Amino acid sequence: MSDTGWILLTGSLVAASCAFLGCFLILRKMAMLGDAISHAVLPGIVIAFLVSHNMNSSVMLIGAAALGLLTAFLVQTLHQSGVQSDAAIGVTFTALFAVGVVLVSVFARDVHLDLEHVLYGEIAFVPWNTLEINGIGLGPRAVWMVGGTFLISLLVVGFFYKEFKICSFDPAMAAAVGIPVLLIHYLMMGLVSLTTVAAFESVGAVLVVAMLIVPGATAYLLTDRLSVMLGLSMLIGVMCAILGYYLASFLDASIAGSMTTIAGIVFALTLVFSPSHGLLSRWFARRRMQQV
């Protein structure tokens, strides 16, 4: 496959996997949790390096995923203690991110381990970071990491679809019928952590956060059914990734930035022209009511 093909495949996998889980975050009013995780994992990456003394991606993934789960746990604990969810997210990720900055400056100042290295990847370099087993090239490492976590998410959500659906719309009713709401919550947060960590090292935190929020928010304006919302969000995410790449090629600009820009444009158009929730449809509905 050509370099362009690998970049498009990686961007599409990131968009689809993030959009799929982002729908549940939007329904739970926790859309910015992905942004929090992408910053809060910094101390986990530093600690993994200090323990292992190498910068292997799998070691970094374990450390980052552990801090991602810790972030979700702390946010949930603060929220249950009476702190508003947005405040809980803000407090948690800024505190953990600051700890990571301190650890880098104290223990890793002479190592190529900085914020630019661990948080902001570049999708254009994906084809050159390949996975090899016994000397056989298997394609970019990012494709395997993101594709693997996407497959895990599909299997877990598919197996517990009813539980995820009820917990997202009405946690109180879910608890009343015997569904382990807290377990489902942490299962979802674990999937978000793994997906975020697997993606942002290669494609950049900006693209990951955008794909966690924008495609799901766009699909939310187009349908009232969760199953349709999940499918639409993935389709919108993949479309934005492909169009964004060609926009970046035309403008000679950032690929991740162009993909995010296309996603924002698609959301803005949907906000205006959505048949059921768009600004125009609501304006026409109000006019008809005034004329009655």
Summarize the structure.
InterPro entries: ABC_BtuC-like, ABC_TroCD. This protein has 292 residues and is mainly alpha-helical.
Give short descriptive properties of this protein.
292 residues, mainly alpha, ABC transporter involved in vitamin B12 uptake, BtuC, two-stranded antiparallel ribbon, 14 helices, transport
Please provide a written account of the structure.
- The protein is mainly alpha-helical and 292 residues long.
- The chain has a single domain (3-283), classed as ABC transporter involved in vitamin B12 uptake, BtuC (Orthogonal Bundle), CATH 1.10.3470.
- It is 78% helix and 3% strand.
- It contains 14 helices and two strands; from the N terminus they run ααααααββαααααααα.
- It has helices at 3-27, 33-40, 42-52, 57-80, 85-107, 115-119, 141-159, 161-169, 171-176, 181-203, 205-220, 226-251, 255-273, 279-291; strands at 130-133, 136-140.
- Strands 1-2 form a two-stranded antiparallel ribbon.
- Strand 1 (130-133) and strand 2 (136-140) form a beta hairpin.
- Helix 2 (33-40) packs parallel to helix 5 and helix 4 (57-80) packs across helix 10 (181-203).
- The chain crosses the membrane at residues 6-27, 32-51, 57-75, 87-108, 142-161, 173-197, 203-222, 229-248, 254-280.
- Its main location: membrane.
- InterPro entries: ABC_BtuC-like, ABC_TroCD.
Radius of gyration: 20 Å
Strand content: under 5%
End-to-end CA span: 61 Å
Residues in helices, as a percent range = over 70%
Strand order of the largest sheet: 1-2
Family: Belongs to the ABC-3 integral membrane protein family.
Protein name: Metal ABC transporter permease
Keywords: Cell membrane, Membrane, Transmembrane, Transmembrane helix, Transport
Membrane topology: Multi-pass membrane protein
